Amino acid sequence: xxxxxxxxxxxxxxNGRMGIDAGDRAAVVMESLVRHLHxxxxxxxxxxxxxxxxxxxxxxxxxICGPExxxxxxLSDTLGVSMLVDxxxxxxxxxxxxxxVFGPFHVEGAPIRQMGDDISLDGKGESCLFAGQVRDLDxxxxxxxxxxxxSDNADGYYDVQQPDIQPQWNNRGRFLTGADGRYxxxxxxxxxYPIPDDxxxxxxxxxxxxxxxxxxxxHFLVTxxxxxxxxxxxxxxxxxxxxxxxxxxxxxxxxATYDRNSxxxxxxxxxxxxFVLTRGSS
Length: 282
Prior knowledge:
By secondary structure, the protein is of the alpha/beta class. It folds into 2 domains: 7-45; 76-276, Aromatic compound dioxygenase (Protocatechuate 3,4-Dioxygenase, subunit A), CATH 2.60.130.10. The protein contains 6 helices and 12 strands. The protein has helices at 10-16, 24-44, 48-63, 71-78, 81-89, 200-207; strands spanning 127-136, 146-150, 172-176, 182-188, 193-194, 213-214, 217-223, 230-236, 255-256, 259-260, 269-272, 275-277. The strands form 3 sheets. Strands 1, 4, 10, 11 and 12 form a 5-stranded mixed beta sheet that branches. A hairpin with a 6-residue loop joins strand 7 (217-223) and strand 8 (230-236). Helix 1 (10-16) packs antiparallel against helix 2 (24-44). It is globular and about 80 Å long.
């Protein structure tokens, strides 16, 4: 029996056109998408003008995308979708370090440095000693773990955002743990910075009365043979944007203590944080 489109039967009509060649997963995802999308449109009673604004917004979002900018991911970030997808795909047992969003500024192949090296190459910012241990859920240190770190500089920019200003690999490095599982390096106390807000996503945030800032954080990518890959940040305790991160990346367990370092005049701050990996696929 043919079902024609009506307001009441909109979901059944659209989903009823699904071809038999649609894969099982594609059918499940699209049927749910149609159901929720139509429910949303009916719930708020979208006007023709609002529908036009939405189409224009999505068009402009696509037009600003390029090799170095992905506005749709930024939109996903600011709506909390990126963090939700990350949370669903990285459920970990109690005691394991929590994941958070990867961010757009990681660069493959950062130099492997010696423990204790300084990754700040531009001489800007308040120096900070970062230290801790990589271990498993049973408390055993993990030897040979790669601790890949990166952060913004004192002005709130990553080196790839200022290739003509910052030295290459500024505030980046990889450190390989020894038998004790410990890592140690010097960098700077990170600073808060805004996500790119000169496009459609920035306009949306402004319309909603939201700021574009991320709280200060240090990025960590921790990998080890036989362990699940960990993508995370440590956030600076007391940062004013912790509870209003523009991309919802903050988890309470990832807020790190930054202590004034009175013993070493060359290093203003120190931050201790241990990473606990889960055994499994690397």
